[in-house]
Structures are given as C-alpha cells and as structure tokens.
Amino acid sequence: MNNIILHIAPYINAISLVLGIVLGLLLIFTNRANQKANRFLGYILIITVLWQCWLVATTNNLFRYYEFIDWVPFSNLLAIGPCIYFYSKYSSSNTFAFRARDFVHFIPLLIEWFVFFRLISNVSIENHQVYTMLSTRFVIQLLAVISIGSYSYFALKKLKALNLESGPEQRLEFNWLSRLIRIFALLWLVWIPYMLVNTLIFNHYISDYDVYPLHIVIWIFTFWMFAKIFLKPEIVLLETEKKKERLKKTPSKEIVDQAKWLNEKMKAEKYYLNPELTLQSLSKELDLHANTISQIFNEGLNKSFSDVVNEYRIKAVIEKLNSAIYAQFTILGIAYESGFNSKTTFNRAFKKFTGKTPVAYKEELNNS
Question: Which candidate, 16, 103, 27, 84, places its Cα nearest to that of 55?
C-alpha cells in the first residue's frame, strides 16, 4: 500500500497544490456578488494549501536540504475557524462590515506564530526537543479542530435565528449555507481519531504516508465545496437582477386590489399573533395557494411575507407599549404576546422597522 501511495503521492500533491492556489486566488480576487464573503473562503483554501505544502516538505525530507523552509509558518490552522464565522456573517447580511475590533478573533493565530518561531529558534536534533515539536503540533491541531467546531456552532446558531424570520427563498439559501458549514466542520473532526491514536498509542510514529488517504478525502470534499461556492454567486447575481426587473414593473390593478384585500384580512383576523404562522398555514386559512400569497406580498406590497408579518407584530408591540394595560409587562413579554417566538428575531425586526432598539424606544416613551 505504501509503495502505491509513494508513486502517486507526487502527482496528487502537484494537482492539489495547483488547484488549491488557483481556486483560492479566484475566490479572493474575482469580482462577484459575494466577493467579500468568498475572500474568507479563499483564505481558508490558501491556509489548507500551506498545510499541504508542509506535508510535502515533510514526506520528501525537504527540511534537510533547504534549511530556510524551517522558518516558513506552514501551519495557520487557528485562522480557519474565524474565517468560517466571517464567511457566514457576510453571506447572511448585506450590511455586515469587518471592523478593527474583529481582529481579536485572529489573536490565537498570532499566538500560534509566536510558539512556532519560538520553537524553531531553539530547535536541535535532540530527541526531547523533537518530541516537543511533535507534541506542540498535536496541541495546535487539536485546538484548531476545537476552534473550527466552536465557530461553526456559532455560525449555525446565527443562521438558525435568521432562518426563523426569512422568506422561502432566503431559507433555501440559509439551509444551503448551514449544510456547507456542517460538512466542512465534519471534515476536520475526522482528524481527532488520527491525532489521538498517533499521539497516545503510537507516540507520533505513524508515517505521514499512512494518512495520505485521509488527506485525499479531505481535499476532494474541500475542492468540491469551494468550486460549488465559486460558481454559485453567478446564480445569485442572476436572481438579484431578476428581482430588480420584477420590482421595476408596475403591479396590475388585480394585484393591487388583492394586496388591499389581503392587508385588510390580516388586520381583521390578526393572523400575525400566531407565533407558528407560516406561508403554508396562512394559505390554508385563506384557501389560497402559498405562491399566490407570496406574489401578492412581493408585487402588491413590495414586501416579503416575513417583512409583512413582522411589521404587523411590531405595530402590535408599539400599541401595547403605549397602553397602560401592559404597563407591568416586560418588553419581551409584550413581544411574545404580539406573535414573536424569538428574542433575537424580535430585536432585529424592531430595529429594522423603527430604527431603534426596543429598550431605547421604551426609554424615550417613558421620558415623554
């Protein structure tokens, strides 16, 4: 088995490194709809390529022939987790902007570099120092897996919250993004058994050639995912242009009349007070197809279903905040009474429709 791997390894390395560099640079520099988000995926791919370069250098004993390679920080694994998080932030919000304080997420990477250069400056051929290098490599890889898992969890939690207040099209996008993050996190979790076995049982003596199949699996899935992401923004761009074209069209009188009727129906029946209200459940109540209702909202009111429902709920909240009957209620209690079932969704919707946070609005109300 090792002989087969020994013969095909150089070709696998050459192809994966070239593809990784090209795709990573395309993600970073190509001007597309999701370029800001794609840049972080490009950084992840470049980091993975550098890690693959380290494997090539190790298995071919290049460190012995080219001493300067020792000083190249091939491992930047503690930056992958933050990159996943910021990719999800840019992908799920058009208003998100990377700020100076966000660099705090990359402090672990600086610590990783410090430890690396500290060890390299004191390296020798003594066995205990070589063992220290291997043990440090194990700790960094373990911390990287924990970091990737943690950031993936927070990214998925954020997407789940956004999913609750989104329309059908946005939900499909968020579900696709959630699946992508889960698969990528799972790819890194497969390293844990290898690291534990190699460190605790074989004392770092497993050959790098023995884990080439694992590398191949990770590379195949990584390239597949990132190539799919690189091609997807074009579809997003086309959908955006189609939506703009639809908005330019003047709605027909029939749609306007239907929108007026639907608006009055929502007010009269107060469907929005139901926290479990969905487009499908509303279609059953009105005996209309869900697509028809969505079309009426989009073309007649120029709003999505979730925006219409949240706007009614916010109006109900404001009405209750101005009523003495609800003076003893908390803001969150009033929100739940008005149809919201998530604090995050309520806060975001309130800020969107009023320009203020619920607390700020209530303070101004009390002062007046």
Answer: 16
CB atoms near residue 88 (< 10 Å): 26
What's the Cα-to-Cα distance from 111 to each of 76, 94, 104, 364, rounded to whole Å? 10, 32, 12, 46
| Pair 9, 45: CB distance under 8 Å | no
20: helix, coil or strand?
helix
Amino acid, single-letter form, for residue 54: W
Burial of 27 (0-12, 13-18, 19+ CB in 10 A): buried
Does the pTM exceed 0.70?
Answer: no
Tens digits of residue pLDDT in 317-341: 999 998 888 888 899 999 999 999 8
Q: CA–CA separation, 3 vs 278, rounded Å?
A: 59
Instruction: DSSP letter for 33, please.
Output: T
Location of structure tokens 């992958």 = 80
Whole-angstrom distance, CA of residue 277 vs CA of residue 272: 7
Measured over the CA atoms of residue 272, residue 277, residue 280 and residue 285, the dihedral's sign is negative
Predicted confidence band of residue 19 (pLDDT cuts 50, 70, 90): confident
How many angstroms separate the Cα of 233 from the Cα of each of 35, 177, 300?
8, 13, 28
**Helices 127-164 and 107-121, interaxial angle, to 10°?**
170
For 38-92, the DSSP string reads HHHHHHHHHHHHHHHHHHHHHHTTHHHH-GGGGGS----GGGHHHHHHHHHHHHH
Distances (CA, A) of 271 to 114, 172, 290, 337, 362: 58, 24, 15, 13, 25
CA quadruple 46, 52, 57, 63: dihedral positive or negative?
Answer: positive
- Cα separation, 277 vs 298, in Å, equals 18
- Concatenating the DSSP letter of every residue in 183-225 gives HHHHHHHTHHHHHHIIIIISTT-S-GGGGHHHHHHHHHHHHHH
